[in-house]
Amino acid sequence: MTTSYSKTILFRGIFFSLLLTIITACVGPEDIPEPKNLIAEDQYVDLLVEIQYIITYRNAYPDSVNADSLADLVYDKYGITEDQFMVSHEYYQKNVNEQIERIDDAIRKIREEEQYIQNRIDSVRKINARKDSISKVDTTLQNQPEISPNLDQQN
């Protein structure tokens, strides 16, 4: 179940990421050369999604020390360093319109994953509701008096 609080945190994080991207692109240098270890654009979008999850986690649990280790795990998963991500991020931000498209792709992926998770939760709830219904029927049947097979013969 997705709470409105977690959605608010998620969309605040996305909003601030987008705002930071626009501001950085507007005041940053115009001619940033393409780095030799540039992260592929599709992988970069996937990283944006994962980093947004970490930001959301950090906002939800501000006292947790796990967010930094989660970031390290994400960088390890993609076989990159934080510096490589930051250089690629700076490079990709130089074109605001394309960066907005990349961020829109990341938002779309987050929403698709959220919908997938919600569908799974709904499916489990339906299964549990059926099990509850069946167990209630079983209990009702167990509490019924037994019918004697010789009942007709007694009359």
Q: What does it look like?
A:
With 155 residues, this protein is mostly helical. It has six helices and no strands. It has helices at 4-27, 41-60, 66-78, 82-93, 96-142, 151-154. Helix 1 (4-27) packs across helix 2, helix 1 (4-27) packs antiparallel against helix 5 (96-142) and helix 2 packs across helix 5. It is elongated and about 95 Å long. The chain starts with a helix and ends with a helix. The model has no long low-confidence stretch (mean pLDDT 80).
List the helices and strands and how they pair.
Elements: H1 4-27, H2 41-60, H3 66-78, H4 82-93, H5 96-142, H6 151-154
Helix pairs in contact: 1-2, 1-5, 2-3, 2-5
Overview features:
155 residues; mainly alpha
Overall geometry comes to elongated
Q: How many beta strands in the DSSP annotation?
A: 0
* Helix and strand sequence: HHHHHH
- Helix and strand composition category: mainly alpha
Distance between the termini: 59 Å
- Helical stretch tally: 6
Approximate helicity band: over 70%
**Could you report the average pLDDT, rounded to the nearest whole number?**
80
- Rg over CA atoms, rounded to whole Å, is 27 Å
β content, as a range? under 5%
Instruction: Identify low-pLDDT runs.
Output: none
Question: For the report, how would you describe the main beta sheet?
Answer: none
Provide a brief overview of the structure.
The protein is mostly helical and 155 residues long.
